Amino acid sequence: MTEVRVGDLAQGFLFRRQAVQLRTELSARGQELSTGRAADLTDRLSGDTARLAALDREVALAATLRRNQAQAANRSAAMQAALGRVQSATEPLATTLRSAAAGGLAGELAAAGSAARGAFEDTVGALNQSTAGRSLFAGAATTGPALAGADAMLDTLRAEIGAETEAAGVAQIVEDWFAPGGGFDSSGYLGADSPASPVPLGGGDQAALDIRADAPALRQVLAASALATLAADAALNLPEDTVRALFDTAAEGLGSAGPQLIGLRADLGAEEARIERAGARIEASAGGARRARASLIEVDGYEAATRMEALSQKLESLYAVTARLSRLTLLETIR
């Protein structure tokens, strides 16, 4: 019978423990090789993980700011496009109204009225646009349209005008309705009196996208195009002289609103530039944080592969020695 000695048993345990340690380390090196980052961050950082935690927070904050910046960029671009649509719809209208008022035939007056209605509807449609489910020009009330429908406002104005046929009277009714505190505030503008919240962009910077559909320039554009529309309205059937006079008044209103509208777009353009600069700053900050984080946790692929190869050879050698010892007999020992 072969005698089992305590030394042999202890040696077997030692070999098995070494094999487990080598397999564990080999698995860790394989993980590092596949992921490119240290398997044991606590050991890699000598237990000091505060710097890594700070960098993780910086990267997460940059991601949030990037989302804010992207949303602000999309919103400002949509607002700029909407204001451009208003400008494109109303700028040529002033010329059309002046030409018709100067001596156009009845058909030209009707055509100018139709053009005015189209411009009014386009303006209302542009100011009622939304992006990402948020109304663009309704201030803090971002869940609904900024304005009542074009037909609804024209119906209200038509009822206000009633039997008035004098150009001065009709113009005053429309002007009063669109003036602050008038009917436009109660039933035309549906948004909030407070502006939309500014968008934080980090570093104490923020984007103020606070243009509302009740801004003075937009009130004037709406009032002028609505006046020209109603001047040629068949239901009101105003005298031709009144129509011509109202066309002149509306053209004058559109002319004075033009520079104000350009000013609104210029202010918005300044915010767009601020948002673009913030995007570059946020990306630079995020890139620096990512690089610093990578320097803490990433491993060299060549070094990881070399260590993995060395561990594989060690493990193979240990298995070979273990196998050889398990086959030893007295005869092989004394040879």
UniProtKB/TrEMBL annotation:
<keyword id="KW-0969">Cilium</keyword>
<dbReference type="Pfam" id="PF00700">
    <property type="entry name" value="Flagellin_C"/>
</dbReference>
<protein>
    <submittedName>
        <fullName>Flagellar biosynthesis protein FlgL</fullName>
    </submittedName>
</protein>
<keyword id="KW-0282">Flagellum</keyword>
<keyword id="KW-0966">Cell projection</keyword>
<feature type="domain" description="Flagellin C-terminal">
    <location>
        <begin position="256"/>
        <end position="328"/>
    </location>
</feature>
<dbReference type="InterPro" id="IPR046358">
    <property type="entry name" value="Flagellin_C"/>
</dbReference>
